[in-house]
Amino acid sequence: MKTTRVLEPAYVLPFILVTSLFALWGFANDITNPMVAAFKNILLISNFESSLVQAAFYGGYCFMAIPAALFIKRFSYKAGILTGLALYAVGCLLFIPSGYLMAFWAFLAAYFIMTCGLSFLETSANPYVLSMGDPATATRRLNFAQAFNPLGSLTGMFVAKAAILANLNVANETERQALRAADPAAFAEMQRADLSVIVGPYAVLGLVVLGVMVVFALIRLPVTAGEEDRSLNVLPTLRRLARNRHYIEGVVAQAFYVGVQIMCWTFIIQYAVNELGLSAATAQGYNMVAMVIFVSSRFICTYLLKYLSPGWLLFGLSIGGGLLVLGTIFLTGMAGLYCLVGVSACMSLMFPTIYGIALEGLGEDAKLGSAGLIMAIGGGCLMPPMQGWIMDQSFTALSATRASFFLPFLCFVVIAIYGLRCRHPREV
């Protein structure tokens, strides 16, 4: 029996280069998650206000996804990649004037511009990888490429822990409030010093991204099947997608998945600090452990796809994730934190699996369809502020921090339903 190749030899080098982008946006995602807690302490703002970092970050994905898809359809995947890298670099470099202004809104604007670039990158790279070979192995090919995304994420987490959190002033929120009341000038100087610590790694990242952009500008990427068609046909495509329940449900599931991922990774610091009294830097160490588990599980789950349909795997992972979130809510002490760390094992393959299932059988509509799935990253824009708002409330039976994790649990319920509905492969 003839075995279908996951990747043809002609696509090996382009695949390696494009896969490097998965690590690059993973770095941006996970150097940013701990900044929610950092900005809260530095600027003395609420959980809801500090989580606007995620609203700005993932808002850029949502805002730019459709324009990016139309741009790529009109020009090429390579043009989309170059545009994405340019916006990514500009957003990172805008951290320099933001730090000088000491204005939270300026940092939010920089995050938004940066992720407009990431939206271009994801809208380009994901369907490009899917198109590099036989459609029958497209999901496995994307899962393999996505497996390198957590490597960038883990690097971003390490930089956040070692270069940012460890170098911030150790004064807690109460001490900062007292200093602000007693000596506003000294408090402003402390803020300036802490914000400069945040600015440094982002400025370096901007220069690195500019270097990567030069590399892509100089190389030749092959044109894949269907890419030569430059016609937009936006309205007919949107009508077909809107009538495709399988696709629409995939967009909804993706929004809930991104929401649960960002909530669990963003608020692991608050959980460890508020429930266990750990420092932010120590809590970030547990976030790094979660990412190691995420990476390991992704390779394991990719192998399991040889024996399970993507829908069945998604359903099983959702059930496991939901049970672990319940442990996070109801188990006290380190057991609750261990459950929260363990959730990453269940989230490991959800994004590319939902992506592949939703685009199955779309043909040329997949280019615009992929934009809808990138727009679904807007779930990371809406849900963290919602969880942050819950954390700002008070409850009697549970702490506000624990109670806020009912929202991630609800997300896993929605994803489980989609996995169950898609448990049987579709006839294409």
**What's the CATH topology name?**
Growth Hormone, Chain: A
Second rung of CATH, namely the architecture:
Up-down Bundle
| DSSP summary, beta strand count | 0
- The secondary-structure class comes to mainly alpha
Low-confidence stretches: none
CATH superfamily: MFS general substrate transporter like domains
> Can you give the mean pLDDT?
85
The count of helical stretches stands at: 22
- Rg, please? 21 Å
Description of the molecule:
- It is a single chain.
- The chain has a single domain (9-221, 232-421), classed as MFS general substrate transporter like domains (Growth Hormone, Chain: A).
- The model has no long low-confidence stretch (mean pLDDT 85).
- It has helices spanning 12-32, 35-43, 47-50, 52-74, 77-93, 95-101, 104-130, 138-146, 149-164, 173-182, 184-218, 234-243, 245-266, 268-276, 280-304, 310-330, 334-347, 350-359, 366-375, 379-391, 400-403, 406-421.
- It has 428 residues and is mainly α.
- 78% of the residues lie in helices and 0% in strands.
- The chain contains 22 helices and no strands.
